[in-house]
Amino acid sequence: MAPYIDDKAVVNGTADDVSSGVQNLKLKNAEPVQVDKGPSYPYYYPYFDINEKFPPTELFEHTDPGLRADPSKPNLLANATTRVLNPYIGTEVLGVQVSQLSKEGLDELALLAAERKLVVFRDQDFKDLSPERQIAIAEHFGPIQRHPTSGNVKSFPEFHVVYRDGQNDRRLPRTQNGLESLTQVGWHSDVSYEKQPPGTTFFWILDQPKLGGDTQFASQVEAYKRFSPAFKKRLEGLTAVHSAVPQANYSRERGGPVRREPVETEHPLVRVHPVTGEKALYVNKGFTKYIVGYKQEESDNLLNFLFDHIAKGTDFHIRANYEPGTLVIWDNRLTVHSATPDFDASQERRHAVRLTPQAEVPVAAEV
Question: What is this structure's pTM?
Answer without folding.
Answer: 0.88
